[in-house]
Design brief:
382 residues; alpha/beta; Aspartate Aminotransferase, domain 1; Aspartate Aminotransferase, domain 2; seven-stranded mixed β-sheet; four-stranded antiparallel β-sheet; 42% helix; globular; binds 4'-deoxy-4'-aminopyridoxal-5'-phosphate; binds glutamine; Aminotransferase_I/II_large; EC 2.6.1.17; aminotransferase
Length: 382
């Protein structure tokens, strides 16, 4: 393994899901729902396979139906207009979109500012691009993890090429406020930075509404926006993601993407085109269901003695284990299956500043109510 990748080892999600399977534990670690998305969308995928839609290589940028549906979604929810032919690219999940964007836009040695804790593929992809990550740490303040705008400003140097943002934010559940987004946009314009925004949890904002960064003044022309069907439609295994960006940036990302997978998920692309057009009731019910589950798990974790950071978005809750007399989240998560049959994710793997994340542990609540109830009952016996 080369020096760029050697530090990354095996992703924590694989380690913890394997641990859950081996021990028969309740898996609140890796973020995937235990109930599939709408049956009509599964049927659309099956129909696509059986009628020969997408069984052979679809067009590299994605099937026209899905590119049109993504553009229509950006218009419908955010009033943003993107040309499906020149400004939309379909990818193998958000993961490929992140990789392609970073590989296409970074020169070796460029600095990338990323909010810490960061989703684990960010650091690996920045490294694969030969670039340097510069973390800006979200810190606990009044029950949430917040961005210090002065720290963000101070992190920009003449070598900074790109801001890599994620809102709603995994793993903290932070949703950047309109004032924070405005400050980020102002900084990006002032220092002429590109912005890559990972908005895969755009439909999981529990208080307030999601604001795409591309909608702020001066941002459309410098923003590569990434999202995915995995979270919104509960089909994480289909790996259908997308990028919206102005033509020049989109073309750059496409140049990298064509040599990563060329194209993926043919029949599923047609099904997700239908999913994006589902009525508002689908999106509202999805959010309401997860709001109730957030509250169930947050209250249960608090009752079990954890310090709980109730998320404003995503399907994850970050807790601090210090009140339980524990210090090290990684050791805690590795021992938890044996102690009570539950699996979680240690946030420290998403930090360069290991001390900042040492005692934090993340729990996924995209699970059946009875599964969450059983997990809470087990954790209360800790
Ligand atoms: N970004 C974030 C913040 C995520 O949490 C995830 C995955 N869960 C991804 C990207 C990857 O999404 P996909 O499964 O579509 O590749
Ligand atoms: N994004 C999911 C999470 O944060 C996991 C995705 C993966 O396994 N790579 O749990």
């Amino acid at each position: 393994l080369n020096r760029r990748l050697a530090p990354f080892g095996t992703t924590i999600f694989a380690e913890m899901s394997a641990l859950a399977a081996r021990t028969g534990s309740i898996n609140l670690g890796q973020g995937f729902p235990d109930t599939d998305g709408p049956a009509e969308i599964a049927e659309a995928a099956s129909r696509a396979v059986l009628t020969g839609l997408g069984n052979q290589y679809p067009p590299g940028p994605g099937v026209p139906e899905l590119r049109a549906a993504v553009a229509a979604h950006q218009q419908r929810f955010y009033g943003l207009s993107y040309d499906p032919d020149t400004e939309v690219l379909i990818t193998a999940g958000a993961t490929e979109a992140i990789a392609a964007a970073l590989l296409a836009l970074l020169e070796p040695g460029d600095e990338v500012i990323a909010l810490e804790p960061y989703y684990d593929s960010y650091a690996a992809c920045i490294a694969m691009a030969g670039a340097v990550r510069v973390p800006v740490t979200l810190r606990p303040h009044a029950g949430a993890f917040t961005l210090d705008l002065d720290e963000l400003r101070a992190a920009v140097t003449p070598r900074t090429r790109l801001l890599l943002l994620n809102t709603p934010h995994n793993p903290t559940g932070t949703v950047l406020t309109p004032a924070e987004l405005a400050a980020v946009a102002e900084l990006a314009v002032e220092r002429d930075l590109l912005v890559v925004t990972d908005e895969v949890y755009e439909h999981l904002v529990f208080e307030g509404a999601h604001t795409p960064l591309a909608g702020l003044p001066g941002m459309r022309e410098r923003t590569v926006c990434i999202s995915s069907a995995g979270k919104t439609f509960s089909f994480t295994g289909w790996k259908v993601g997308w990028v919206t960006a102005p033509p020049e940036l989109l073309t750059a990302v496409r140049s990298a993407k064509q040599f990563l997978t060329y194209v993926a998920s043919g029949p599923f692309q047609y099904a997700i085109a239908e999913a994006l057009a589902l009525p508002d009731a689908y999106y509202d019910t999805f959010r309401a269901d997860l709001t109730a589950k957030r509250d169930l798990l947050a209250d249960g974790l608090a009752a079990a003695g954890f310090e709980v950071f109730r998320p404003r978005g995503t399907y994850f809750i970050t807790t601090d284990i210090t009140p339980l007399g524990e210090k090290d989240g990684l050791a805690f998560c590795r021992s938890l299956p044996e102690r009570c049959g539950v699996v979680a994710i240690p946030n420290q793997v998403f930090y360069d500043d290991k001390a900042a994340g040492a005692s934090l542990v993340r729990w996924a609540f995209c699970k059946k109510t009875e599964v969450l109830q059983e997990a809470v009952a087990r954790l209360r016996r800790l």
